[in-house]
Amino acid sequence: MRVRVLGCSGAIAQGCRTTSFLLDDDVLIDAGTGVGDLTLDEMAAVNHVLLTHSHLDHVASLPLMIDAVAARRLAAGAPPLHVHALPGTIAALKAHIFNNLIWPDFSSIPSAASPLMRCTPIAVGEVLQVGGKAVEVLPAVHTVPAVGFAANSPSGHWVFSGDTSRNPAFWQRVNQLPVAMLIIETAFSDREKALAQRSLHLAPSVLAEELDQIAPAEAGATYPIYITHTKPAETGLIMEEIRGFDERPSRADAARHDIRWLSAGMTFEL
């Protein structure tokens, strides 16, 4: 399985694109502004979009992408674009984006029987079969209904936390999986820790406590951890604070982690 990082920033700025990952050629995980780097052919090849939650930085490109390739998909007789999301996320999309005020309701265009987009509700613990890939829905803790995802591959699971705060249920499940790579958010620096707590995001000191829940290395749970969703104005400080806690663990028995920095344009073969 190939994973292409289209966007992994917590906001926009020059060179910063918001969250979206392309699995192989046909499955998007989230649809942030990074989708805009795909060609029309690449966008037309996407048949499934899996959304972690309804916030704009994760869905902004979905209505624009459908519009960009609508004529091409209709001419080719392509099936509807399947949007897989929690019921609350689907309700938010219908109420606030695909409402014929902000954007056309593509779930009824050109007709309700044969639409350009079809929304399918998902639930935590469900394993989705999309594009020949098995993707498990993981729990997340955020200000709106939210999930993470774990996509199975020959090398193990590609795990994405989604936007989340402290999340014991997430680690309980992740520790049961053969993980090849973990992508986890850290939106704010510790300078903004109070804001992170109010908005249910992670800050470096909280991330350190979360990573302590990873099963010990002797149990086979050693894998690279990529940091995503940093706010552009905070990225340098976040990286410095994470590097600091990992180089100087607070406990003698605390594990060192293989922490890396995610950036748009990266591609992984799993």
UniProtKB/TrEMBL annotation:
PROSITE patterns: PROKAR_LIPOPROTEIN. Signal peptide: none annotated. It holds the Pfam family Lactamase_B_2. Residues 17-206 form the Metallo-beta-lactamase domain. This is Ribonuclease BN (tRNA processing enzyme). It comes from Hydrogenophaga palleronii.
